[in-house]
Amino acid sequence: xxxxxxxxxxxxxxxxxxxxxxxxxxxxxxxxxxxxxxxxxxxxxxxxxxxxxxxxxxxxxxxxxxxxxxxxxxxxxxxxxxxxxxxxxxxxxxxxxxxxxxxxxxxxxxxxxxxxxxxxxxxxxxxxxxxxxxxxxxxxxxxxxxxxxxxxxxxxxxxxxxxxxxxxxxxxxxxxxxxxxxxxxxxxxxxxxxxxxxxxxxxxxxxxxxxxxxxxxxxxxxxxxxxxxxxxxxxxxxxxxxxxxxxxxxxxxxxxxxxxxxxxxxxxxxxxxxxxxxxxxxxxxxxxxxxxxxxxxxxxxxxxxxxxxxxxxxxxxxxxxxxxxxxxxxxxxxxxxxxxxxxxxxxxxxxxxxxxxxxxxxxxxxxxxxxxxxxxxxxxxxxxxxxxxxxxxxxxxxxxxxxxxxxxxxxxxxxxxxxxxxxxxxxxxxxxxxxxxxxxxxxxxxxxxxxxxxxxxxxxxxxxxxxxxxxxxxxxxxxxxxxxxxxxxxxxxxxxxxxxxxxxxxxxxxxxxxxxxxxxxxxxxxxxxxxxxxxxxxxxxxxxxxxxxxxxxxxxxxxxxxxxxxxxxxxxxxxxxxxxxxxxxxxxxxxxxxxxxxxxxxxxxxxxxxxxxxxxxxxxxxxxxxxxxxxxxxxxxxxxxxxxxxxxxxxxxxxxxxxxxxxxxxxxxxxxxxxxxxxxxxxxxxxxxxxxxxxxxxxxxxxxxxxxxxxxxxxxxxxxxxxxxxxxxxxxxxxxxxxxxxxxxxxxxxxxxxxxxxxxxxxxxxxxxxxxxxxxxxxxxxxxxxxxxxxxxxxxxxxxxxxxxxxxxxxxxxxxxxxxxxxxxxxxxxxxxxxxxxxxxxxxxxxxxxxxxxxxxxxxxxxxxxxxxxxxxxxxxxxxxxxxxxxxxxxxxxxxxxxxxxxxxxxxxxxxxxxxxxxxxxxxxxxxxxxxxxxxxxxxxxxxxxxxxxxxxxxxxxxxxxxxxxxxxxxxxxxxxxxxxxxxxxxxxxxxxxxxx
Length: 997
Fold this sequence. Notes:
Its main location: membrane. The chain is built from 13 helices and 52 strands. The protein is mainly β and 997 residues long. The radius of gyration is 34 Å and the shape is globular. The N and C termini lie far apart (68 Å).
């Protein structure tokens, strides 16, 4: 009996204990920092169970179904993780301590990431707040002035791509833009990326950071990281803005009376009778006629959600811009899906997929040039009818300028572009010290253009007396041209990273990998697979602009296969540091490319870098003044494979009578020569830098000196006639040097609990020149044509690339004519008298920024400027035959009553290219002024955060140049720095709201 009672009691105690142990409960709590500030967004997860929560705006969390004895882990970026055991208590207060190690900035490098403190190379980072502060179609346009050594030249045209030069212009004929890497996929630009999707942009500038990209690294590399999902509750963000835009600066043109006086005086100087009445009926402002108040709008939605195993980020954005040129519109829809999957404990799969669909209605930018030159004495249309006035719309024959409004009216084009990108990555933690990554990226782009030319309408608008019966019956009434272009790129990376530490002091990191790549049409030499078809007499409605709707005959078409390139690469990088004090980096990459001939397909690239973190030494360890001090240096060799390809031109039509009957035989020849040694350009770079921080890093900055030498720059050579060839051949023939200094400084501090501020800036000083010509047959190339038979530029040893080569105007004679410096004393003014006057690229440039936060208010101001460069006023230099002039030219012209030693008398002859039309390109502009306010919201609202703001973009500029804009994109021998058919700079005023749900 006693035994039965004992067993029954034991049974009761065991099972009642089990019942107690398995009883679940709900708990809640708060997460704060040591200063009692709540930490919203902290993750709270029960270890070993799918029970988790994310703290709200006040740091609160709750967990349901936990058991006594469970342990939950609290993590938050920048703070040490903390584990808490569940007891009988229902509420918990968790205080997290800051983790200084986590707070140190981590930057993305090629095939990995590193603490900025441990870098031996020069890398600049721009964060998402700086990118999204200035709405623009291209993220690069938004960060102008934010990174030292990075010169960004934008265009005011909707959807345009800015020019980006990193540490100067290193080549005249090779590709000049940097390489972009978006989540591992290599690409030529990031115009398809929604700026709101970017977390940060890392700009690699020196050999130590760039050598891992081998023959892609010579022009710099820009790495773009997009946003990722995170574990926790669903988060929804909405950003919406709308603004208006107008020209930043307008040039005052002469009115009708001034034009008539000036043109009559020019006619009299030519011995002709005056022909313009001073009292004109019309006074047309052509710039006003072709422009409008444009608009800019942006709407973005992003969703973030996830669990411990799956984390996802999705976004959709729509950007729309109406340019100031009438009818010039651009819009872009972007979609992105970034997802991470923890397949098993040590293996993770991630995918980043994006699509960008853009739709553009382009208009000819030459309308700006024609509006500048067209006379104000004629109207846009004739008063008695609807016909356009002006040349090609007038029988007056005043000048040879087209009617700019008519040019826009009859220019009908539509362009659509679809760009798809995807990156798929598997990351495996093979062991605690070995990580393996396999990544496949693919990019493809589809472009389509439709152009409709109303031939009959153009004919009728050319003369008000014309009728349909006057039009040639066999001529097409209209012409439709459809163009299609597509290209692609895929790349497969496989690399392993090994981390090992010896004696808690010696830290090693080794990265080994291989890359295989194939691309079609991405190197700027050829534009992928191309097809164009033309048909006549299609319906006028744009819905029917398809080739099958035109006449069956004739069927005109052309196409090309494009340029296919295959690459194979092997790379290795080793990082070593001793107690984060002494740093060493070595990088090697071997690249092979199919586009070069045998014997020149493979190249080796390398770099070595070293650093000394002086602030880790005992004599500075406890310094209250010096928070951080590092000296670093690097040397390496980089490549630029984007050079013109070896393509021969076969000339036909050389017919010759041959044989006894002297019958005509078709003949042809090759009159060019291929250099079999043509390969990539090679750049050597030396860099030494000093990084510092004072007073708890309130003042922080960097100073870099660099010297970049492109030792086999591609240049044209012209062989003697004895070789049997005419024209020029491209070959490695020169050395281009960029030498400079970069300075970055930033001061940030708090005043009390409610006010914080930051003041920063950067300056770059760069000296560019063609240091040496290494081929005796070098052909000193000229360029910079302004469309009237005059050229303005020349490439020559000792001068910067893109240097202006002009006659020197020394004054004005007693008849109001230019006096040119006769350099060779020949008595004749010609090319032998031309001089060099500087280049279009600036010697110095930089940016500045000021930000402040007071309670719920935030303020930001940033600007950019450059000096030491020149701009050629191509519009002004293009005048001849009764075109209009600027009011300033009229007011200051030479006359017998008001002689001038600097301004000429009115003339109609084609002006020679001279420094009279060359002006300084120095300017300082406020890029952005933003004032924002975060609304105080009730806790019960579904809106977690709401901020409204006002932004003024490019509101003010101080410039030396008298034209529309001193920033003009283009190459060193094309239109870079020449204002001719260029889009004027614009200013915008924007209202916006950001919501978090």
